[in-house]
Amino acid sequence: MTSSSTSGTALVTGASAGIGATYADRLARRGHDLVLVARDAARLSALAETLKARYGVAVDVLRADLSVAADLRLVEKRLREDAAITLLVNNAGIGPKGGLLADDIDYLDTMIALNVTAANRLAVAAAQAFSARGEGTIVNIASAVAIIPELFNGTYSGSKAFVLAFTQALAKELDGTGVRLQAVLPGLTRTEIFDRAGGSIDALDQSRVMDVSDLVEAALAGLDQGELVTIPSLPERADWEKLQAARFALGPNISHNKPAARYAAA
């Protein structure tokens, strides 16, 4: 698709509902043309028609199950070859059904395929394409449990910790290329992910559940402010900066040619 927008085209994965659909709406409002990616072609098409009528932008629908290698490569191909694409919202993913000890290990493999493998492949493809063009933005949707994994299912938390670490490392590598990175770390958010996993968002403490519209608005504000990591619920940015300072303070001591003295044999 040739972009009709001076803002360029945004490719949004997991766009049929929830965070992805809300990103699509807000980006269209900002003037972006769109490529919407998800498994549910009917819902994508309905959303596309709504956004075209509401905002007058061009919207393409790309039906793909990103846990399937052939579908994932189709989306990758679009990212690499469509020079109109200036923004990737790497949002597709699934949540857990419960604790690991009671979960279906095949389902967990699918979670890793979506939350890690697909997210990694699309972000790398976008990074390579955007850096060659000298501009572009990659938004990776992680989770607050990336920094406090003990609160949730281990495979899910681990998958989101990967997204956070990957974004931080990739941002360092892309420094000076004109490509921007952002990891978004939502807390509990009112979306369909809980219903799909067999739970209910209504059963949770509602004082801790954010509306998806508020989440996406905050995430876009963080992007506008140049944040590499955006935690929409975090009141004080200084708290995150303290965590990063403590992490970097470990740097000089995480690799030496001898074990620490405290590990010496008795």
Structure report:
The mean pLDDT is 92. The chain has one domain (9-238): Rossmann fold (3-Layer(aba) Sandwich). It has helices at residues 18-29, 41-55, 69-81, 105-133, 154-174, 193-196, 212-224, 237-249, and strands at 9-13, 33-38, 59-63, 85-90, 136-141, 179-184, 189-190, 210-211, 229-230. The chain has 266 residues and is an alpha/beta fold. A seven-stranded parallel sheet has the order 3-2-1-4-5-6-9, sandwiched between helices. A two-stranded parallel sheet has the order 7-8. The protein has eight helices and nine strands. Helix 1 runs parallel beside helix 2, helix 3 runs parallel beside helix 4 and helix 4 (105-133) runs parallel beside helix 5 (154-174). Strand 2 (33-38), helix 2 (41-55) and strand 3 form a beta-alpha-beta unit. The relative contact order is 0.11.
Whole-number tally of structural domains: 1
Task: Please name the fourth-level CATH homologous superfamily.
Answer: NAD(P)-binding Rossmann-like Domain
Q: Radius of gyration from the CA trace?
A: 19 Å
Number of strands: 9
- Biggest β-sheet: strands ordered side by side in the sheet: 3-2-1-4-5-6-9
Principal-axis shape: globular
Strand content: 15-25%
| Distance, first to last CA | 68 Å
Secondary-structure element sequence? EHEHEHEHEHEEHEHEH
Q: How many helical elements?
A: 8
Describe the sheet with the most strands. 7 strands, parallel
**SS class:** alpha/beta
Fold topology:
Blueprint: E1 9-13, H1 18-29, E2 33-38, H2 41-55, E3 59-63, H3 69-81, E4 85-90, H4 105-133, E5 136-141, H5 154-174, E6 179-184, E7 189-190, H6 193-196, E8 210-211, H7 212-224, E9 229-230, H8 237-249
Parallel strand pairs: 1-2, 1-4, 2-3, 4-5, 5-6, 6-9, 7-8
